[in-house]
Each structure stands twice: as structure tokens, then as C-alpha cells.
Amino acid sequence: MEESTLNIDKPKSFCGIFGIFGTENAAYATYYGLHALQHRGQEASGIVTAQNLPDGKTVFNIHKDLGLVSEVFHNPAILRDNLPGYAAIGHNRYSTTGASESMKNIQPFVVNYRMGHLGVAHNGNLTNAHILRERLVNEGSIFQTTSDTEVILHLIAKSRLTDQISQIKEALQKIEGAYCLVILTDDKLIAARDPYGFRPLALGKLNGSFVVASETCAFDINSAEYIRDVKPGEIIVIDREVLETKEVKSYSIFDEPSSTKHCIFEYIYFSRPDSKIFGHSVDKIRRKLGKVLAKKHPVRDKDGEKVIVISVPDSSNTAALGYTNQLEKDGIRARFEIGLIRSHYIGRTFIQPGQTKREVGVKIKFNIVKGVLENRTIVLIDDSIVRGTTSKLLVNLLKEANPKAIHIRISSPPIMHPCYYGMDFPSREELIANRFNGDIEKVREYLEVDSLEYLTTDEMLEAMVEQDPKDFCTACFSGNYPTVINKSFTKEVYEEKVTTENDANLTI
Asked: Is 15 designated active site?
């Protein structure tokens, strides 16, 4: 059985990026940071380091491969002997554009152009990559990958400006969509975030060095101190001068700021609960989502017994705690229980002997605690429903415990629309809420549960404590996209086009 058949039916995560400047053995901190960011991408991992040689020259060292961080860097000698250097960038990959099995698409990407070495790692999705790529190819550029990230490298390399910061700024002014970048040059670490701030990107300090990462959990594992977020539309530069002054250099991509549009799914599902993103605790927001869900959509046991609240581990655990606490606060007897046990030791592939039933795939991942669930009213808390296939199989699994009733509560609205900013949903037709035209009762009938309730968009935004609701992108729920989108140009069309184009090009 391939990994995809075992994955929980959830939107796939973005990528994870990490960068550090000004420390011995920078690869080690990057390795640990990527470990903490493993949830953001499990297909491939890579690290690039900048090393000063005795003759004053700088060389880049690189190691990357398909697999988890622990698989790619399985031998300690890789970090010790192959990746020396005072600065590094790292990347965990989940592909949003570019074939996932291609070794060429593994980041960080490294080139050597007229201004020296350039390495880049990217988290996000460029919505105009196909237009820029076609223009660059017509101007003579030869692409080595099918990833939209390579477009950024070509734009920087083709710039006629005379310093790298200006070249990078000019390149970023041409791209659209969602991106967080870490860029390594011969003497600088550069980080940048798109003007809408779709993705989280944090700046920190580790002893005398500076670090940037997708989430602050990558700081915690290194005992680094969180300083602040990289601002939407900001380019920060860290070099030797910054190490002395302790003042990071900051530039704006555009003169006029854009409206902030954070991806709300980072709070709902993607980010680790122990991270701080967009300046706020993920754990706190998820608990609030659960509390709002309980206030607006409570469940009572018909006989006055305690309602048993369980989560779909692990991303729904915190929301389930918030839901339980709010029920109790509102006078509804409730208890949070571990009703579903998830196996974390499957690995990325699993061989299923013979063509047995599809339910085996879910039972490989989950099992029920029957004593907790038998003859009880169950509230299953989940953060989202995408296709609905896993939810239906989980309901069937729960029914094996002979509960009194099964209710599902979702801490987000129905997903009705595709995402063009890096969140990899299935096609519009595969989204169960879209398939049933937003009719929640029909989704409930499909799942065969006693009740099903989602948060509305307004209820969800109510949980964004101390934040302006206007600062969030909710396009996957509402269809209101912050940027102009060529909706006919899907990920699949992009990959088919650039793969055909690459086959026709010379390989160098």
C-alpha cells in the first residue's frame, strides 16, 4: 500500500524552511530545525551550507534526497564531514508544483552566477509562475526542474542590477502568490515574505547567530530565542555586519503595503500547536476554535449522561479540549477521552498483502478504545473534512464500539474551493462539501452520523483572538481570493506543460 492510501484525508502541508547565519556547524542547527518542521513536508529534505576556505573563497556544500529528515541525514558524518560551514539553509518538501518523485525538484536549489553562489528554499506557491516561466524560456533560459521556485532563481540571475539585494527585490516584485524564502549567498542570509503574508516566517537569535524558520518550534529545539515575525512584504538581510551590530537589515519589496491575508488553515491544521505563528500561539487559537464550536454547536446526551468528546489525533486534540471545557462551562456534562489511538510507526510506505478491504488502511492508522465509547454519546472533533472518505471510515470504526450516538463537529467551515497559494487540496469535484453544493445535511447522510455541524466563517474568525478578522485568507471556504487567479491553470496543467517543455530542452 502506498503512503497516499494511508494518509489521513487532509489538505497536504506546505514546505518547511530554515536558515541560520553566524555559527560553527550551521548544518546541525538546520538539521534539528528541519526535524521540528517535518510535519510541513515528508517527501524530501535538503541542506546547503556556506563554508569559508583558507584562501578567502566561499564554497557551498549540499546534501539532499528523497525521504524524511532522519532518512536523508541518517549518517552523522553527512553533517560533520559533508556540510561544514558558518551559514546554512534547509528545506522539507511537500510538492505543490513540480513532480514529487523527481530528484531535480528537491530543494534547496543552488546556482553559481556572475555575482557568486546563490541557494534558495521556498515555501508557498507562485500564481504567475507559468507566465514568468514561458517568458524566461522565450528569452533563452533553460530550466532544470518543474518547480516554480526555479523561476525565482532565473529572475535574480537575469537582473541587470549591480547588487544582490536589488536583484532579489526586483525579482520579488515580478512574482505573485504566496512565498516565504530563505536565500543563501557567499556572504549573506536573506529571508523574504510575500506582501500578503500568506505563510508564517519567524526571526530568532541563537547565541550570537540569527535564525529564520517557518515556525517557532524549530527555534525551540535549538534553544533559540524568538525575536519577531518577518513582516509581510519584508526582505531581511543578515551578514557579518549584522552579527556585530545586532540590528537586522530590513527592506520592503514594494513601497506601498498590501492588505495582510494570513492563511487561516495554518491555525486550523498545519502548524504545530507548540508554535507561535503570525505573532500568536497556535495552541491558544485552536482551543478558542473548540470553545466557539461548543458555544455555537453543543451536543447533549439524551439521558443526561456525560458526553464523551474525542478527537481525530493529532491535529484536533487541542480543539477537542477547548470544546470539552466550554461544554462544562455552559453546564453540559462532558468528558474528554482518548477514544481513537493513532499509530505513529507505519513509516512512509506499508505493504498490504492482497487486495483486502479499504477499511484496513484506516485500521492500520487508528484503533478505538471500546470501553470508553460503548453505549455513550460521542462527539468526534475534527479540524476539517476534505473528501470525506477517512471520516466515513472512522465513523464505521467507531460504530464497532456500539455507541449510543455519534456526532461530528468540525472546527472550520466546509471547504468549497481550491487553494492557489500552496495548500494542496484535491480537485473541486472531489471536495465533499462542493460535491453536495454546501448541503451539510447531505454530507451528514453520507457519513451516517446523528448530527454534523461546522463552524461558519464568521464563527471561525471569532476565534482569532487579538487579531483583525480582515487579516486572514478564507478563500478555500468563501471563494474570495485575495489575488487575481487564472483558475484554469491548475497544478496538473502546470506540471504537464513544464515537463513537456523540459523534455524538449537540452539538459545541462
From this structure: yes
